[in-house]
Amino acid sequence: MSSARATAGAIQIKPVATREDVTLFWRASLVAQGHDPAFTPPLLKETVDVLTPGATPFARANEGQSFVALRGGEPVGRIYAVKHHAHLEKHKDGAGHFGFIEAIDDDAVWDALFEAAAAFLREKGLTKIGGPYSASVNHECGLQVEGFGARSTTHTNYAPPYYAAQLTRLGFRPVKDIMGYEGDLATSRLPQRVAKARAKWSDSPNLVLKPAVGPDALAAVNDVYNDAWSHNWGSVPTMLEEAKFLAEMAADIMPKDWATLAYWFDRPIGVLCMAPDLNEAIRDLKGRLVPFGWAKLLWRLKVSGVSRTRVPIIGVRHAYRGTRVGAMAASALLADAVLKARAAGMKRLEVSWMLEENRPILNLVRGMPATRTKVWRLREGALAAAARRHARRQPGYPRLAGNVERYVKVVDTEQSSGMTTEMFHVEMGASRPCRRQRASRLRARLRAARPPRARPRRRPPEQPPW
């Protein structure tokens, strides 16, 4: 849909409270992007499992609310707002989060959605809003800003360019970019290079890779994950209960030996998780698994296979970063993933999300070799700014004709002891120029109000004595 900025029809914001509301929430994504061939409709079952109020450990531990924008009873947008207690406890930044954002390209719809999210977060005592986090930094996060037209992989968001334009219009500023790299498995020589490097390393026998299986495997994976990401930008620890919920969701599509731990002297120090590209398998299912979607999905995942896989998690404990042991562990984990994906008949492998400053992992992935195919961006804005935008759209807000800006009037100038003190006041208009304009006009007013400097009179040259 083109940017018509239409206002035809009133926008109704409906909080999600029932299963029927969750279905409307899911349908909003199809209305917004269903016409885009690069978009993969999310599964209705997964949306219900994740966003039914109080259904997940994350939802029960935090204060969140989903909203659907309706026009004429039909969904045209959606958003999720959350007060994430673990994030606030660690970062103490007063920031709430938004996520699951989908909407048609209509200013009125985006304004109404973010007004609802901002009002919810202000009621919780928060001062900033950041995202997208769907629902946290440990889940889907970021808004795609590079790689448009390429199909998204499993559990990564796809967004057309106007999404970023709308967030910019709403005053959100970029704070962090996360990267996605993709490489061809058939041509990768990473396993051979890693095997050659390990053969020359005397401590290689002490570094062992094992599949994360068994009763204690999930706790070990979660422990290594939390430690490895503990010093990353925006990181928040994952609760074990939440990790169990995510593992159960992935169990149907992820081979058991595709979660791998790296052990150094019998202590787990590194982790890698890999999953087949679910989006490739569900692309034509329109988000529904009944009546025949389940059969198609299982056939494609278990029999015919998919051509692409994704590595969403790869890292080593913080104490091993910058060490030879840590570098060898990460290299061995990625090389092992290449071999497993190749054996499963995969053709392409994507590694995402990686922080833009994570040079060791970025360099390792580039050496696979892989090239940057996608970038997702996290943004932040002030809730006070959202409140001002909301106030300006209310009936009765003073609006003056013409370019009414700030006016500066000098009301008094006094001079004492060679110093000049200028007294002035500011009259506020309804519209505000940009900061540079305001500063320039203020300086001009002050210069005009200053009394002219008394220039010393030049003395005539002395006459020579002759």
Describe the structure.
With 466 residues, this protein is of the alpha+beta class. It has 3 domains: 11-176 and 380-392, Aminopeptidase (3-Layer(aba) Sandwich), CATH 3.40.630; 183-375, Gcn5-related N-acetyltransferase (GNAT) (Aminopeptidase), CATH 3.40.630; 407-448, no CATH class. The chain has helices at residues 19-33, 44-51, 57-61, 85-91, 107-123, 161-169, 190-199, 217-228, 240-250, 278-282, 293-304, 324-343, 359-366, 383-392, 435-449; strands at residues 11-15, 63-71, 74-83, 95-103, 128-131, 133-134, 140-141, 143-146, 173-184, 207-211, 259-264, 267-276, 308-316, 348-355, 371-382, 407-416, 419-427. Helix 5 (107-123) links the parallel strand 4 (95-103) and strand 5 (128-131). Helix 5 (107-123) packs across helix 14. It is globular. It starts with 10 loop residues before the first strand and ends in a 17-residue tail after the last helix. 37% of the residues are buried.
Helix amount, in percent? 25-40%
Given this structure, which CATH class of the largest domain is correct? Answer: Alpha Beta
Per CATH, what is the topology of the largest domain?
Aminopeptidase
Outline the low-pLDDT stretches.
Answer: 1-7, 399-431, 461-466
Fraction in beta strands: 25-35%
Short overview:
Helix content is 35%, strand content 27%. The protein has 466 residues and is of the alpha+beta class.
Helix-strand blueprint:
Blueprint: E1 11-15, H1 19-33, H2 44-51, H3 57-61, E2 63-71, E3 74-83, H4 85-91, E4 95-103, H5 107-123, E5 128-131, E6 133-134, E7 140-141, E8 143-146, H6 161-169, E9 173-184, H7 190-199, E10 207-211, H8 217-228, H9 240-250, E11 259-264, E12 267-276, H10 278-282, H11 293-304, E13 308-316, H12 324-343, E14 348-355, H13 359-366, E15 371-382, H14 383-392, E16 407-416, E17 419-427, H15 435-449
Parallel strand pairs: 4-5, 13-14
Antiparallel strand pairs: 1-2, 2-3, 3-4, 5-15, 6-7, 8-15, 9-14, 9-15, 10-11, 11-12, 12-13, 16-17
Helix pairs in contact: 1-2, 5-14, 7-12, 12-13
Organism: Chenggangzhangella methanolivorans
Protein name: N-acetyltransferase domain-containing protein
Region (Disordered): 429-466
